Automatic annotation (TrEMBL), chain A:
<dbReference type="InterPro" id="IPR028073">
    <property type="entry name" value="PHTB1_N_dom"/>
</dbReference>
<dbReference type="GO" id="GO:0016020">
    <property type="term" value="C:membrane"/>
</dbReference>
<feature type="coiled-coil region">
    <location>
        <begin position="371"/>
        <end position="398"/>
    </location>
</feature>
<dbReference type="InterPro" id="IPR055362">
    <property type="entry name" value="PTHB1_pf_dom"/>
</dbReference>
<dbReference type="Pfam" id="PF23337">
    <property type="entry name" value="PTHB1_pf"/>
</dbReference>
<keyword id="KW-0175">Coiled coil</keyword>
<dbReference type="Pfam" id="PF14727">
    <property type="entry name" value="PHTB1_N"/>
</dbReference>
<feature type="domain" description="PTHB1 GAE">
    <location>
        <begin position="436"/>
        <end position="522"/>
    </location>
</feature>
<dbReference type="GO" id="GO:0060271">
    <property type="term" value="P:cilium assembly"/>
</dbReference>
UniProtKB/TrEMBL annotation, chain B:
<dbReference type="GO" id="GO:0097730">
    <property type="term" value="C:non-motile cilium"/>
</dbReference>
<dbReference type="InterPro" id="IPR028796">
    <property type="entry name" value="BBS8"/>
</dbReference>
<dbReference type="InterPro" id="IPR019734">
    <property type="entry name" value="TPR_rpt"/>
</dbReference>
<dbReference type="GO" id="GO:1905515">
    <property type="term" value="P:non-motile cilium assembly"/>
</dbReference>
<feature type="region of interest" description="Disordered">
    <location>
        <begin position="46"/>
        <end position="92"/>
    </location>
</feature>
<protein>
    <submittedName>
        <fullName>TTC8 protein</fullName>
    </submittedName>
</protein>
<dbReference type="Pfam" id="PF13181">
    <property type="entry name" value="TPR_8"/>
</dbReference>
<keyword id="KW-0802">TPR repeat</keyword>
<dbReference type="GO" id="GO:0034464">
    <property type="term" value="C:BBSome"/>
</dbReference>
Length: 559, 469
């Protein structure tokens, strides 16, 4: 969510279907041109190494062929590229390329041609190390406080730190309690390595302690020695941050103070040298990468944090200073100086979208898509409106949200039970053992005041009673018409019914298609199911009823 | 193999991760069976349960509509203060004037069944980890695995009980020195409704290590225990430790808003914007605040900013339309509503738009259009009490008293917190001479909104009438 978008200064798309990750982007003056002009070095998981020197004539120009200084395919996937003083005896910058099982250090040099596109660049392998273990990532720096050269530390997938003093392998150490490799950084002020372990803790190991600890290779030899000899690798300090980290950066912009920045999955931490939290910020998005880049104001540090919703946020400590939209989700972000333009933001996405951009106030106004708007013909509209109004008025007359009162019922159904039993019994399939099962006629009348479509009548009585016909379907009813049907009710099964009530239900649609129902009840006489019998004096069972109320005389009950 | 297991656990968790702090809905069962109620009658300004305890500066319901719980509508839907489905923050700028009257969530568990919960996503290969067969003690002793496993159980499987067991074992194994485990135990207790226990855990965790999240969790516990003042103090304490932390300031602002102290809330929302000027919630809340304090032009500017930032949904255009209307920019009003209708995702949103259009129609005097708009509102959402009420007023004008009365009755049964239907019934009955009914309705209206002058006048008038008789 931002008003602004990153202004495109130079951008390109690298290769086809290549994959890139955090370590694949590096920005430095790798060919030692001395002009202080940074080059963009990109390595891909397909093994392509590319070096760019972006210099568009005007911002947003297309990529010129001569911007690509070098493209070589190395045999193995490139995990990480770094630039530093990696070759002994010289302080010029060299390029270190980390493969899965190999570390190579190259010298990059260019020969000037007569014209600009005649310039030639090549890389020369200075030295390489074959690795015993699969590498994950690396960091470099003046370990142990050496002057004028950089040493490399590689973290392997199984938690071993391998240290290289330039052309020679120094030693390897296993990190205690290791499970998965986390990001790794070197702090030159405290001379220690900082990583985030699988315990969700930031851990700091002194270089000194690493150097004197038991050699990892020996330790593997015998279990016995591991326990007895050498010092155990002791952690310098630990800070529990309670989440996994994406990246760690150690920076010191003003003398004397260095800060450890940890980008977690949900929070962003700034730690002091001794592992205390200087400040933290809860992020309400999921970040993808970050870089602390400079200190504009004394005592504060500015940081770029990119996130998965394609935003790049600029923070001064915890205060959001700027937010800008990016065209894609970056996996790595750097700040570079080109030509006469300083502080260009270089971003790389996982599918190889490399962009150099700057922050501009040109708003990327969100353009709401157009709602399809027709040319309005007022006369037609008016006519249509009138038509619709008419329909609405009609509709409001006949129907409403609120139910109408009973007397306005459109369709009424009435049932009439004849006073006498049928002279000729209509009973069919009766299971009653008695000689003649009586039946009674019920006359049902449907009266309709409006047109009713598809009316159907259902009559139901409780078993063991039954009707001769329980379903009737009629043709559509005209307004003010009526239908009458006649049916008979009888006792079907050989037991006494629980009730003598019956229901008839009419369902129909009114002309607008809304289904309606109306119903009525009728009650059947007792003589349908009972025969009169003579009172018996000598009974098997006797029932005596006492009452404190004056009883009704028998004559009233049995006339 | 452990490493791979760990990775997969983390990946699965990440797939469904929802920040627990934003996740909160009080089910109706929890509200009713609240055992934590300590004082039944809270002192003014110390509780969120009495809606009317505003200490000045709070708008009256005549100006700002209230939600069912009697709180003024905020400009932003967030779980637990409004009805609202648990939706992502950015998508949820709620229409003013029409807060969907909160339908209570039917059960305690209902609130936690959210789209993200994986236990509802069927996995073709069966569950990754079979919880019932897990030896929690074994895992608790491996801190590397335990944390990932805990998050998996808690977020992915949504099995709080097992998660709690694991956390309890693990914190014991860590000799109670790991603040992270304490926070997790606190989270579990919170889910299980054991707020006092949760509070203990969070406090203990804070003693070990100050973390923003812990402050937020603890404040949440206090809010649930209905101690907003304690929560406020806690937030302020947190701000001392982490100056400028947006989530903490925002928490303060929300509490003030819920306590009806709108001016303080706006103050804090402005602080939020000073720290993070892309904060959608703060912009929306300040905007709606301006709207209800009769400054639609300023509100319009806030909403326009949201639009420029890329918030593009029905609610925003709804708000824009209303602001335009009240700022007398009629040309923009209808096109905004047109867009809002176009963007409406469900019938409830459509109902909101039609309701607002009805308002506009009333405003410009086109009663026929208004009538139809309110009808359309009801077609889209047939328990929209406000629309029933307004429709009734229109019917009243037409002279259909029976219809009007029925509509008003529906309205008041749907939304007993609104005073308007009662008042309208009172007026209607008074007109047709049914003084007794008028009096009872007026009393109900007064109950819903004690400060309503018209109601009081009507009551007085009726009393005089009765005295004369």
């Amino acid at each position: 969510m931002s008003l602004f978008k990153a202004r495109d200064w130079w951008s390109t798309i690298l290769g086809e279907k290549e994959e890139f990750d955090q370590g694949c982007l590096c920005v430095a003056d790798v060919d030692n041109s001395g002009s202080g002009q940074d080059k963009v070095i990109v390595g891909s998981y397909k093994g392509y190494l590319r070096i760019f020197n972006p210099h568009p004539v005007k911002p947003g120009d297309e990529v010129q062929p001569e911007d690509l200084l070098l493209e070589v395919q190395l045999r193995e996937p490139i995990l990480q590229v770094e630039v530093g003083k990696f070759v002994s005896g010289t302080e010029v910058l060299h390029l270190a390329v980390l493969h899965c099982r190999k570390l190579c250090v190259y010298a990059v040099s260019g020969t000037q041609g007569n014209v600009e596109h005649g310039n030639q660049y090549q890389i020369k392998l200075m030295y390489e190390h074959n690795l015993q273990r699969t590498a994950c990532n690396m960091t470099y720096g003046p370990f142990g406080g050496v002057k004028g050269r950089d040493l490399i530390c590689i973290q392997s997938m199984d938690g071993m730190l391998m240290l290289f003093e330039q052309e020679s392998y120094a030693f390897g150490r296993f990190l205690p309690g290791f499970l998965l490799p986390g990001p790794l950084a070197y702090s030159s002020r405290t001379d220690s390595f900082i990583t985030v372990s699988s315990c969700q803790q930031v851990e700091s190991y002194k270089y000194q302690v690493l150097a004197f600890a038991t050699d990892a290779d020996e330790r593997q030899d015998t279990e016995q020695r591991k326990l007895s000899s050498g010092k155990r690798l002791v952690v310098d300090w630990v800070l529990n941050i309670g989440e996994q980290a994406l990246d760690i950066c150690v920076v010191s912009f003003n003398q004397g103070v260095s800060s450890v920045f940890v980008l977690g999955e949900r929070n962003f931490f700034c730690l002091k040298d001794n592992g205390q939290i200087r400040f933290m910020k809860k992020l309400d998005y999921s970040p993808s990468c970050f870089i602390p880049y400079c200190s504009v104001q004394e005592g504060t540090i500015n940081t770029l944090i990119a996130n998965h919703s394609k935003m790049l946020n600029v923070y001064q400590d915890v205060t959001l200073k700027w937010a800008t939209q990016l065209p894609c989700i970056p996996v790595s972000v750097k700040v570079a100086n080109f030509q006469d333009l300083k502080g260009v933001i270089v971003t790389l996405s996982d599918d190889g979208h490399l962009q150099c951009s700057y922050l501009g106030t040109d708003p990327s106004l969100f353009q709401a898509p157009k709602v399809d708007s027709r040319e309005i013909n007022y006369e037609e509209m008016n006519a249509e409106m009138k038509e619709l109004q008419k329909i609405i008025r009609e509709a409001t007359k006949t129907q409403d949200i609120l139910p109408e009162s009973e007397k306005q019922r459109d369709v009424t159904v009435t049932a009439e039970v004849s006073p006498d039993l049928d002279e000729e019994s209509q009973a069919i399939d009766s299971e009653v053992k008695a000689g003649a099962v009586p039946s009674i006629t019920v006359k049902i009348t449907i009266q309709s005041r409006v047109a009713a479509q598809k009316p159907s009548l259902a009559v139901c009585v409780q078993a063991p009673l039954a009707v001769t016909c329980d379903q009737f379907v009629f043709d559509d009813l005209e307004p003010d018409s009526s239908e009458t049907v006649v049916l008979s009710v009888f006792l079907k099964e050989n037991c006494s019914p629980p009730e003598l009530e019956g229901t008839c239900i009419v369902s129909y649609n009114i002309p607008t298609g809304i289904p309606r129902v109306s119903q009525c009840n009728f009650s059947l006489p007792l003589k349908l199911v009972c025969f009169p019998a003579q009172p018996s004096k000598a009974a098997n069972h006797k029932l005596t009823i006492d009452t404190n109320k004056p009883p009704i005389s028998f004559v009233t009950i049995f006339p | 193999i452990q490493a791979a297991w760990n990775l997969k656990t983390r990946a699965l968790t990440e797939m469904v991760y929802v920040d627990e702090i934003d996740m909160d809905q009080e089910g109706i069962a929890e509200m009713i069976l609240d055992e934590n109620a300590i004082a039944q009658v809270a002192r003014p300004g110390t509780s969120l349960k009495l809606p009317g305890t505003s200490q000045g500066g709070g708008p009256s319901p005549a100006v700002r509509p209230v939600t069912q719980s009697g709180r003024p509508i905020t400009g932003f839907v967030r779980p637990s203060t409004q009805s609202g489905r648990p939706s992502t923050m950015e998508q949820a700028i709620r229409t003013p004037r029409t807060a969907l009257t909160a339908r209570p969530i039917t059960s305690a568990s209902g609130g936690y069944v959210r789209p993200g919960t994986a236990s509802m996503i069927t996995n073709p290969d069966g569950p990754f980890i079979n919880l019932s067969r897990l030896n929690l003690t074994k895992y608790a002793q491996k801190p590397k695995l335990a944390k990932a496993l805990f998050e998996y159980i808690f977020h992915h499987e949504n099995d709080v009980k097992n998660a709690l067991d694991l956390a309890a074992l693990a914190t014991e194994h860590a000799q109670f020195k790991d603040w992270w485990w304490k926070v997790q135990i606190g989270k579990c207790y919170y889910r299980l409704g054991l707020y006092r226990e949760a509070e203990k855990q969070f406090k203990s965790a804070l003693k070990q290590q100050d973390m923003v999240d812990t402050f937020l969790y603890l404040a949440k516990v206090y809010l649930r225990l209905d101690q907003p003042v304690t929560a406020l103090n806690l937030f302020k304490q947190g701000l001392e430790r982490f100056p400028g932390e947006v989530t903490l300031i925002c928490g303060i602002a929300r509490i003030y808003e819920e306590m009806n102290n709108i001016s303080s809330a706006a103050e804090y929302y402005k602080d939020v914007l000073k720290q993070d000027n892309t904060h959608v919630e703060a912009i929306a809340c300040i905007g709606s605040n301006h709207f209800y304090s009769d400054q639609p032009e300023i509100a319009l500017r806030f909403y326009r900013r949201l639009l420029q930032m890329g918030v593009y949904n029905c609610q925003l255009f709804n708000n824009l339309g209303l602001c335009c209307f009240y700022a007398q920019q009629y040309d923009m009003t209808l096109s905004s509503f047109e867009r809002a209708l176009f963007l409406a995702e469900n019938e409830e949103e459509t109902a909101d738009v039609w309701y607002n259009l009805g308002h506009v129609a009333v405003g410009i005097g086109d009663l026929n259009l208004a009538y139809q708009c309110f009808k359309l509102t009801l077609v889209n959402n047939n328990d929209y009490a406000e629309a029933y009420n307004n429709l009734a007023v229109l019917e009243m004008r037409k002279g259909h008293t029976e219809q009007a009365r029925a509509l008003l009755q529906t309205a008041s049964s749907l939304a007993p917190h609104m005073y308007e239907p009662h008042f309208n019934v009172a007026i209607l009955s008074e007109k047709i001479g049914d003084l007794q009914r008028s009096y009872t309705a007026a009393q109900k209206s007064e109950e819903a909104f004690p400060g309503h002058v018209d109601t009081q006048q009507l009551l007085k008038q009726l009393k005089e009438h009765f005295a004369m008789l």
